[in-house]
Amino acid sequence: MPSAASPSQDTSTDHSPAFSALIRTASQEQHTEAENSSFMSEMLGGRLGLEAYTRYTEQLWFVYGALEGAADDLAPDPVAGPFVRGELLRLPALEKDLTHLHGSADWREHVAPLPATAAYAARVAEVARSWPGGYVAHHYTRYLGDLSGGQIIRGTAEKTWGFARKGDGVRFYVFDAIGNPAAFKREYRALLDALPCDDLEKRRIVEECRHAFALNTAVFQELGAHFRLSA
Ligand code: HEM
């Protein structure tokens, strides 16, 4: 989980924290909640079967469909555009993973979003259409997480279900086009710090980030209920 330390220097003249530090701190509690959800804990503890991992990967496909379906339209936007980076795109990797997990290329005919996933994807699609700052909140919540804790999930998945290291089944967690994830995250935080938004808009973005975490937790809860976990 993210530590409390500020990842960025205070570069503003009014000594308010850098936005990257603010959004990280403001979502820390929700991060802990998502991380400690029964579904995540059981999955990272290696106590769930491949079916649970497959259902989870399917849910991600719906969420990234909404995030990345909007990318081209948002590329010229002054707020969201700088975050739209080809190196991040996850859909091709997710599709390879799902082909592997289902053992056939016709998996699209067999997958459906859980209600919580449908609500999450709908919210992403809505902000993508109408509010670039809100899209940034969702972009941050997923991609910076995938570049961080996602690596822990990959290691567990490889060990638990026997996927080849960085191979089919865990390609979602492998950012081939990002040679130095730490440097990439630094640049990403610099983009957050340079957002051309006023303080009110930044507060709204932080709120949307909390909402994004809650939407993730809701998906974990439904997956947990499906696999009969206690909370
Ligand atoms: C069990 C699951 C998870 C683990 C083990 C985990 C672990 C981590 C770790 C180690 C970091 C790096 C912190 C740092 O650089 O100091 C991180 C950052 C982050 N995680 Fe997670 N995480 C998990 C789940 C999630 C989920 C479900 C989300 C949201 C969907 C998420 C979103 C983020 C974000 C946005 C960051 C970047 C924070 C920042 O530096 O601004 N994580 N996570």
UniProtKB/TrEMBL annotation:
Keywords: Heme, Iron, Metal-binding. The keyword Ligase does not apply. Coiled coil: none annotated. The keyword Phosphoprotein does not apply. InterPro entries: Haem_Oase, Haem_Oase-like, Haem_Oase-like_multi-hlx. Pfam families: Heme_oxygenase (PF01126). It comes from the Bacteria. This is Biliverdin-producing heme oxygenase. It comes from Streptomyces smyrnaeus.
